[in-house]
TrEMBL record:
InterPro entries: DNA_helicase_UvrD/REP, P-loop_NTPase, UvrD-like_ATP-bd. Keywords: ATP-binding, Helicase, Hydrolase, Nucleotide-binding. Residues 32-48 have a biased composition (Low complexity). One of its GO terms (biological process) is recombinational repair. This is AAA family ATPase. The lineage of its organism: Bacteria, Bacillati, Actinomycetota, Actinomycetes, Kineosporiales. The keyword Hydrolase applies. GO terms for molecular function: 3'-5' DNA helicase activity; ATP binding; DNA binding; hydrolase activity.
Length: 792
């Protein structure tokens, strides 16, 4: 395990000096200077208010110290960067690459230090023995290496999340610090073991308001980290061991996404040596969702993470189209792996009858038996199509060279045949005849051709799919790529391999690169030692990566994103219930170690190819290597909204274990009935949104409708009306979305339009409606014409 420190930032062993630069443990009493500030403010010094003010003043002093230390470290990092930029590099490619690499390293480090500015410290633990620990986004130590702040991911900070009154684990008091900018705005204490504190301490204890404050804050359209208020059951998942597939199942709003992202940050910190170099991939359902979560990991100081939707996971292909549900379901079915395998095999052809070839007056023949033998040898290598092709070609050239030797009356030994094979390679006729039997392929062209050529499709699917199913796959050549084509492209690419025309040359290249690499690592180790660089933030391997090659200063994530065969140290899959079996195969290829965090809710499955059980989803890629953890508390949706949402789902026959809401909520959901006419519905929507704005005085709102083709006119009218001057303050804060787009998102207030229409629009319409109803943090309005769905 790494110690997770950077130069000047504290280690994570958890040893702490409590407050002050002196490094000596301080007692549990607050300082007298803070007391005088409360007197100046007019509160009686021993009243609860006076005590709180003293404590706030004390925490302010401490926070000032932390920021001053952070500023020091930052300015040192800036100075080093300036020096790197000023220094002249040796004018060689290696020298320039090295300079670029250092530049990128220090720039990234500065970005990481900047990212922790907001809410640098958010907690304090007072241990029963008198020790005090401040918990924050990073570890910080003073010049004398005394710890000022413990990184939230360090073992010493675990008690901050795990201690409860029933099992305090040596913690007497847990304190949350509320801050704005660099100012302490409040404290919130929980007493876990009162015996460890004296009477004066007790006057400031108020309970766990920090969580409630976080839950009821207006949303901003971007997910925030929850590092200050992670709850015990969530923290256990964050800190769970790295190996195997960890499934996090939980109802809406239980923090699955938040927990998965914090887990990624935790794993990068704790196992930096093992996974930072290969990176972490986070897969989320849509670009809108990725934009919603994109700030969480940087705010936790982690930038080397690749975010992708399933549609973007095949480099070079943007799969923006969608298939109709039954086609999507078929393409996600594991039988497609067999279809693709067969289709590739059918591009390795036999020869029906001999083909004569003349070569400078010599007559030779491409023989059916030789082709059959070459094909079976090539297949036996087990290599992908494009690589196995060299075995196929070699064998046939050898056979033809033997014939040529005989025709020229040369000795038929290996050496002669090798020479003649070189000559044969230069003949266009020979190359054409051999190529026709075993062409080099590219994944995109191959799949396009397969789906647009009925005869090929029939041959590849025979005995594997029903005839009617095979017809579903058929489409014109050059059709746009759909989301469900992506795992098929990946399957093809895996079976045909990269287009290697000169394998021997490639092998030589690999050996040369390996030798250079060893040298680069040795050099980087020396650099790290000399510069005293942070071992945890940057390993010698990572630094060597940057010294190497033309893309020397590319980050891990930049390299990984463009390389289909890149294997990650850990993969997080969000909204995993939507992932098809074929897509699981693709994701599994990205992480051979199967170190994965898979989060989802089976009750929210809406895609036709999605999962109904975790075993169905995961057994084929990680049999016996997956385990499930549950989250049970809904932090988003108040109970007043959850109850009808759950009743609706239950009434449709879907049985789920409902999470308990952390809040009852202030508003009952409202229901508005309108005529089925678009103008009337749009008007009702605007009325609902205006009422939300008046009730909440700000925040983010969503209007959720069935897919555009169903309610296009209503959404069009709503969007248009929002441009009118009377909605000027609202326009930017209202999103009009279809049920497909709201997966994983949340809003202060939500208006759901035509619930019966949403249910009717797809096979899993009830789950879609459940997703829509569970998006609000405060208020829900349902607009309907005709009847309401059962249970609602
Ligand atoms: N411990 C916590 N402290 C503060 N806020 C929290 C906590 N846990 C969850 N939340 C908040 O609850 C909301 C829901 O979290 P999140 O989106 O991660 O849930 P989810 O389980 O992925 O939901 P869904 O499946 O419905 O998309 C977010 O605003 C998140 O910040």
């Amino acid at each position: 395990m790494s110690d997770g420190t950077v130069d000047g930032l504290a280690d994570s062993t958890g040893s702490t000096d409590g407050a002050g630069n002196s490094g000596t443990p301080v007692g549990r009493h607050v300082g007298s200077d803070a007391a005088s500030s409360s007197e100046a403010a007019g509160a009686a010094p021993d009243s609860p208010q006076g005590a709180t003010e003293r404590e706030v003043a004390h925490e302010q002093d401490y926070l000032d110290q932390l920021y001053s230390r952070l500023d020091d470290i930052r300015s040192r990092a800036q100075k080093t960067l300036d020096e790197v930029r000023r220094a002249s590099s040796s004018n060689t490619p290696a020298g320039r690459a090295e300079k670029d690499a250092f530049d990128a390293l220090h720039t990234e480090r500065l970005a990481q230090l900047d990212a922790v500015e907001d809410r640098l410290a958010f907690g304090r633990l007072d241990m029963s023995g008198g020790e005090r620990r401040y918990v924050g986004r990073i570890g910080l130590s003073d010049e004398g290496q005394h710890q000022l702040l413990v990184d939230w991911r360090a073992p010493a900070a675990a008690a901050f999340y795990q201690a409860t009154a029933a099992s305090p684990g040596g913690v007497a008091r847990r304190r949350h610090l509320a801050t704005r900018g660099r100012t302490v705005t409040g404290i919130d204490d929980e007493l876990l073991d009162a015996a460890g504190l004296d009477a004066a301490d007790l006057t400031t204890v108020t309970g766990d308001g920090a969580l409630m404050t976080a839950l009821t804050e207006h949303r901003t359209g971007k997910m925030r980290d929850i590092v200050a208020t992670l709850q015990s059951e969530q923290d256990q998942i964050v800190r769970a061991p790295l190996t195997g597939v960890l499934v996090v199942q939980g109802g809406p709003g239980t923090g699955k996404t938040a927990v998965a992202l914090h887990r990624a940050a935790y794993l990068l910190y704790t196992h930096r040596e093992r996974i930072a170099k290969s990176g972490v991939l986070v897969v989320g359902p849509s670009p809108v969702f990725l934009r919603y979560i994109e700030r969480v990991l940087p705010s936790l100081g982690e930038t080397g993470v690749v975010l992708s939707t399933p549609s973007q996971i095949f480099p070079g292909v943007e799969a923006n189209a969608t298939d109709v549900p039954n086609v999507a379901m078929l393409k996600g079915d594991l039988r497609m792996a067999r279809v693709i395998r067969e289709a590739v095999r059918q591009r390795q052809l036999l020869l029906p009858k001999p083909v004569p070839i003349s070569l400078d007056g010599d007559q030779i023949t491409l023989r059916p038996a030789a082709v059959a033998e070459a094909r079976s040898r090539a297949r036996q290598t087990g290599r992908p199509h494009n690589e196995a092709r060299s075995t196929f070609v070699k064998h046939l050239l050898d056979d033809l060279a033997g014939q040529l030797a005989r025709s020229r009356r040369l000795e038929n030994d290996a050496e002669t045949r090798l020479e003649l094979a070189a000559e044969l390679r230069d003949s266009i006729d020979v190359r054409r005849e051999i190529n026709l039997r075993w062409m080099p392929l590219s994944a995109e062209a191959f799949l396009d051709k397969l789906f647009s050529t009925p005869a090929r499709l029939r041959a590849a699917t025979e005995g594997k799919l029903a005839k009617a199913e095979a017809r579903l796959l058929q489409r014109p050549a050059g059709s746009p790529w759909t989301q469900s084509d992506v795992p098929l492209l990946d399957e093809v690419a895996e079976l045909i391999g990269p287009d290697v025309t000169a394998t021997a040359e490639a092998a030589r290249e690999r050996a040369r690169a390996a030798a250079e690499r060893a040298e680069a690592v040795r050099y980087a180790q020396g650099v790290l030692q000399m510069s005293g660089e942070a071992s945890a933030m940057m390993t010698a391997d990572m630094l060597a990566d940057r010294f190497e090659g033309p893309g020397g200063s590319l980050t891990v994530s930049e390299r990984a994103r463009d390389d289909r065969t890149w294997t990650y140290g850990h993969v997080v899959v969000d909204e995993a219930q939507e992932v098809s079996p074929m897509m699981w195969r693709t994701l599994a290829r990205r992480v051979p170690s199967r170190s994965m965090t898979v989060v989802g809710d089976l009750a929210q499955t809406s895609s036709a190819a999605g999962a109904s059980t975790w075993a169905g989803a995961l057994d084929t890629i990680a049999k016996d290597r997956w385990r499930v953890s549950e989250l049970t508390v809904n932090y988003r949706t108040p109970a007043k909204i959850m109850r009808p949402a759950a009743a609706m789902l239950t009434a449709t026959g879907i049985s789920v274990r409902l999470p308990e809401s952390a809040r009852e909520g202030d508003w009952e959901p409202s229901v508005l009935q309108t005529p089925a006419e678009p103008g009337a519905m749009a008007e009702a929507v605007l009325k609902a949104v205006t009422a939300d704005e008046a009730a909440l005085g700000g925040g983010q709102f969503a209007v959720i409708l069935a897919r555009e083709e169903v309610l296009g006119e209503v959404s069009e009218r709503v969007r248009k009306s929002l441009l009118a001057p009377e909605y000027a303050t609202l326009a930017d804060r209202v999103s009009v979305l279809s049920v497909d787009d709201v997966k994983g998102l949340e809003y202060d207030a939500v208006t759901v339009v035509d619930p019966v229409g949403i249910i009717a629009a797809s096979r899993r319409g009830a789950s879609d409606l459940y997703v829509a109803l569970t998006r609000p943090t405060q208020r829900l309005t349902v607009i309907h014409h005709g009847k309401l769905p059962k249970g609602l």
